[in-house]
Amino acid sequence: MSKLQRNKTDRKLVLRARGGGTQRCAGEQEYGALFAKAGFRVFGYDIAPSAIRLSVEQTQAAGLQAEFQLADFLRDPPPVLFDWIFEHTLFCAIQLHERDDYVRAVLRWLKPEGQYLAVNYLIPDKDGPPFGTTRDELWQRFSPHFELLKEWVPRSYPNRTGLELMLWWQRKPEGNLQAPEK
How confident is the model at residue 71 (pLDDT cuts 50, 70, 90)? Predict the structure, then answer.
């Protein structure tokens, strides 16, 4: 049994599919379905109404329960604090100057000692989106606030093999961190 399955009781997940394209939304919804099947209570947020509609339709068609609503993860306050945040395609889609805002948002939406699981896109492109990152950049941004629990190269689409890195972090207790300066 995986740690994900062992820790499923009363867990919540933030699932975002920023952008609204059908492929991107469908991929994000698939992750939501996996977490819902594992017993998580799934919340999906997106800035695109079409992404919300598609996610609701796909989730209902699969017979799963999840909640979806319009929200801007970087700027909006969270409706509740979450035990888990799963990231895929938002960090690489935002402008490079918004990355500190992203770290602040994760800290704002996640409970102390909450889990942050991220698929990171390791491409050299700085002219995106998508905008690439490096393990060093991720370490510099997240390690002051999170403990790295595990990292691995995920199974991926053939054109992204070796270009993605999964990082599983746990937020440090409240007293041990400060968000990046604005």
Answer: confident
